[in-house]
């Protein structure tokens, strides 16, 4: 098998919280990303996406567990130019033009770093003479993306690259990214936006409370999300009887005294609840991607 682009094993990180206790940011993350995959880390605020990315980049040391990038430690992969990042708060110098910025960073990377193609890839060639301070947020993000591609890294990691952009800028950013990724670069990005993950990624990893709560191709996540959910007010102890009849029974969540269940055959599941248990107020609902996201990321 090819060496994975990223492999983490039982990755954990806690921080000191404001009240003197510990905040668990990443809680036992096992993850393998294959070369050439485009992967979205999708999760709500505080889910642990940035902390995970920082550990993959070697910017934060895990408390325990391990990270490998193309079979090497994160830092040596970064030093070797195999991995590059577009971070939320990466600084740009406002008084330089776009072209000057790209050329300066290209010269640091030495021979082989081609400013012209980096600008073309990021769709900023037409902004070459513009001062960075006069570029919009979206244009500045594309500039950061151009800078990240200069060493021609195998893996590019983007932490919420389109945060704060309007719809048009987001579309332009992703179209530049998409054409770059088609050339086989591995891309990992964090986002809050479901549609962004769905439109752009091959694979969605949903993260909540520092753990992976779902991991699949976008079509698998869609299929999972489009399953019908059957909910009822019932005793927890009766679930075992239902599971004997419905082989692929899944407990989606427990909320407000209701238990939400799913299975491929939602009619059979509803029948099993009504005929084999004391379940009351049985309801069947379709689960769209938005619901699935909320259910998966907000379950206690
Ligand atoms: N340096 C730090 N000190 C203390 N707590 C931290 C620190 N960095 C992160 N945390 C906490 O760790 C948890 C995970 O944060 P993280 O930034 O990784 O989440 P995230 O998914 O990237 O969130 P967002 O989408 O808001 O950027 C949060 O509870 C956060 O408050």
From TrEMBL:
InterPro entries: AAA+_ATPase, ABC_transporter-like_ATP-bd, ABC_transporter-like_CS, ABC_transporter_ATP-binding, P-loop_NTPase. Its main location: membrane. The keyword Endoplasmic reticulum does not apply. It is a peripheral membrane protein. CDD domains: ABC_DR_subfamily_A. Pfam families: ABC_tran. It comes from the Bacteria. Keywords: Antibiotic resistance, ATP-binding, Nucleotide-binding, Transport. Residues 6-234 form the ABC transporter domain. GO terms for cellular component: plasma membrane. The keyword Nucleotide-binding applies. One of its GO terms (molecular function) is ATP hydrolysis activity. SUPFAM superfamilies: P-loop containing nucleoside triphosphate hydrolases. It is found in: Cell membrane. GO terms for biological process: response to antibiotic. This is ABC transporter ATP-binding protein. It comes from Gordonia oryzae.
């Amino acid at each position: 098998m090819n060496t994975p682009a990223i492999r983490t094993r039982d990755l954990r990180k806690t921080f000191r919280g404001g009240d003197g206790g510990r905040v668990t940011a990443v809680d036992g993350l096992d993850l393998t990303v294959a070369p050439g995959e485009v992967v979205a880390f999708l999760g709500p605020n505080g889910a642990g996406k940035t902390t995970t990315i920082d550990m993959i980049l070697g910017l934060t040391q895990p408390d325990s567990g391990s990270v490998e990038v193309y079979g090497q430690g994160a830092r040596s992969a970064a030093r070797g130019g195999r991995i590059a990042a577009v971070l939320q708060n990466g600084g740009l110098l406002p008084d330089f033009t776009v072209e000057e910025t790209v050329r300066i960073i290209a010269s640091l990377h030495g021979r082989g770093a081609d400013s012209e193609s980096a600008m073309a890839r990021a769709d900023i060639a037409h902004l070459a003479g513009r001062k960075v301070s006069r570029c919009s947020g979206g244009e500045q993000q594309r500039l950061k993306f151009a800078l990240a591609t200069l060493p021609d890294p195998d893996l590019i990691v983007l932490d919420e690259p389109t945060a704060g952009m309007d719809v048009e800028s987001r579309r332009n950013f992703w179209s530049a990214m998409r054409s770059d990724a088609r050339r086989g670069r591995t891309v990992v990005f964090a986002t809050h936006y479901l549609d962004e993950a769905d439109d752009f990624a091959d694979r969605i990893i949903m993260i909540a409370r520092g753990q992976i709560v779902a991991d699949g191709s976008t079509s698998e996540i869609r299929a999972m999300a489009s399953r019908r959910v059957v909910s009822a007010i019932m005793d927890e102890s009766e679930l075992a009887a239902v599971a004997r009849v419905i082989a692929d029974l899944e407990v989606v969540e427990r909320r407000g005294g209701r238990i939400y269940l799913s299975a491929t055959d939602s009619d059979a599941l509803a029948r099993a609840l009504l005929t084999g248990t004391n379940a009351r107020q049985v309801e069947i609902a379709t689960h769209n991607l938005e619901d699935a996201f909320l259910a998966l990321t907000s379950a206690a």
